[in-house]
Amino acid sequence: MSDRTPMLAQPLQCPSAGRAAAYLGLFVLGAVVGLAGALVQGGWFPGGLLLALLGEAGLLLGGARATGSRAGAVAPAGGWMVAVIFLTTSRPEGDFVFAAGSGSYLFLLGGMAVAVICATLGQGRQPGGDAVRLGK
What we know:
This protein has about 140 residues and is mainly alpha-helical. About 65% of the residues lie in helices and about 0% in strands. The chain has four helices and no strands.
């Protein structure tokens, strides 16, 4: 394709092995942050909840900046979501991680909101160079 073809018209390509490994690492890191946040938010209610949500936001924005794409924020958000959904299920013995309180619901809904906000704020695919600027 020529250099003048819009980015959305170009075919999608599979990520390189290094980038795929980075996304997998971010996914696992997101699961770890979700597990740690679930434990911290219940232990120290107001401060632990803020710490858990700030930790998630830091990971998502850091992943987006490190990879230079929105997928760097989506991968850890997916890991966070899988870990938190797994922790919401109760065991046959009746044990559970999340109590039916306002802190747990704020963590679940706030964490989803943080994931959406950080994935939206992450850099999208942008063409480079001076030729893409208006007026040139």
